[in-house]
Specification:
Elements: H1 12-39, H2 43-80, H3 86-214, H4 219-256, E1 262-264, E2 273-275, E3 281-286, E4 289-294, E5 297-299, H5 305-310, H6 313-320, H7 337-341, H8 352-362, H9 367-370
Helix pairs in contact: 1-2, 1-3, 3-4
Length: 383
């Protein structure tokens, strides 16, 4: 605000009136400074205080204008009485100069308060910008939280589904194990019955040959006929028992798995492979980290050739029963494929192929039982 105050000769009583007014102005300016300092903490209160201070400043300006008009009137009156109060003029002039100094100080304080107000406005603008950035970050974090919550719910649902599948697989495995045990028991029973019937049939055939030598007419011919009928019944029973054995053996193979993957670990003084308990998994240590792998069966380094063949010999029987069977080894160079499949010339080190041929040759399948002719064709691929 621009204020032009013309000071002339003032009476003593007017000076006494002006000084309290200027003191009140100073007090109001101090109050305004305190209000501006507290307004920086709260934006809404600052705006209200700014409006209040503006109103107060306008009121002070109007009061100053009113006082100026009063001073002009007093100056006119003082001009008329100048001669009588010349002595008091000097004192009043000094007071007026002090008043000017106080006014200048008030203006400087007002300028400082205005500067502080501008700084407060800038701080409020920076606070608004920071708050907008914080709100954007909060929204982004909320979106991320929602996405993580949805992903967590999906993972929980997947875990529940996997747990249900695991329970079903466990129950199915238990059922298959029971069925496998029952099939093994039935197969052993069928094999025992077949062996009994085969021995009995051989005994009856020897008796039949003896009877043919002494066979005559009459009752002897009837006895021979009854024996022949009984032999034919036993042959039919033996064929049925062999068929049952084949079916049970095939069911046992299917329960164990038509496709099986075995792993044989070659002996090594510093092996990084560790066979785990259970005989179906192993652990490979690489870069100080352990990686586990699962198979249908794992053969430890100390496993013999006979133990390996015992796990696959039932497949040779399946081949004799008329099923297609394939057994092969796979691995890198030097892993022990040739030793496993071919082995050495000693009996305990024979591989899978010579042992399979021995089993085929030693398996007796009488044509009278199966009414089948077996052709064995062998081929050998030299390394």
């Amino acid at each position: 605000y621009n204020r032009n105050v013309v000071v002339c000769t003032v009476l003593a009583d007017c000076a006494a009136v002006v000084c309290p007014c200027m003191y009140q102005v100073q007090q109001r300016l101090a109050t305004a400074e305190d209000s501006l300092a507290s307004a920086t903490a709260d934006r809404s209160q600052l705006q209200q205080e700014l409006r209040s201070q503006g109103d107060k400043l306008m009121l002070m300006e109007s009061e100053l204008k009113l006082k100026s008009s009063r001073m002009d009137a007093a100056q006119q009156q003082l001009a008329a009485e100048a001669e009588e109060h010349e002595a008091q003029r000097a004192l009043l002039q000094k007071q007026l100069e002090q008043l000017k100094a106080d006014k200048d100080e008030a203006r400087s304080q007002l300028a400082a308060a205005t500067a502080e107000l501008e700084a407060s406005k800038q701080q409020l603008a920076a606070a608004d910008t920071t708050r907008s950035h914080a709100e954007a970050a909060v929204q982004e974090l909320q979106a991320l939280h929602d996405a993580l919550a949805a992903e967590h719910a999906a993972v929980q649902a997947k875990v529940l589904e996997l747990e249900a599948n695991l329970a079903a697989a466990t129950a199915k495995t238990a059922e298959l194990s029971e069925a496998l045990e029952a099939a093994n028991a039935d197969l052993a029973d069928a094999r025992a019955k077949s062996a009994q019937q085969a021995s009995r049939l051989a005994h009856l055939e020897s008796e039949f040959e003896a009877l043919q030598e002494v066979m005559g007419e009459g009752e002897q011919r009837d006895i021979v006929g009854r024996l022949l009928g009984r032999i034919s019944n036993l042959q039919a029973a033996a064929v049925a028992a062999e068929r049952t054995r084949r079916e049970l053996h095939n069911q046992m193979v299917e329960l164990r798995g038509n496709i099986r993957v075995f792993c044989r670990v070659r002996p090594h003084p510093q092996s990084a492979v560790k066979c785990l308990a259970g005989g179906t998994s192993l652990a490979l240590t690489l870069d100080n980290k352990e990686h586990q792998f699962s198979f249908d069966k794992v053969f430890a380094p100390g496993t013999s050739q006979q133990q390996v063949f015992d796990s696959v010999c039932e497949l040779v029987q399946s081949a004799l029963d008329g099923y297609h069977v394939c057994l092969f080894s796979y691995g890198q160079t030097g892993a022990g494929k040739t030793y496993t499949m071919s082995g050495a010339n000693t009996p305990e080190h024979q591989g899978m192929m010579p042992r399979a041929v021995n089993q085929v040759c030693l398996t007796t399948v009488p044509a009278a039982f199966t009414e089948a002719l077996i052709h064995v064709v062998c081929s050998w691929l030299l390394p």
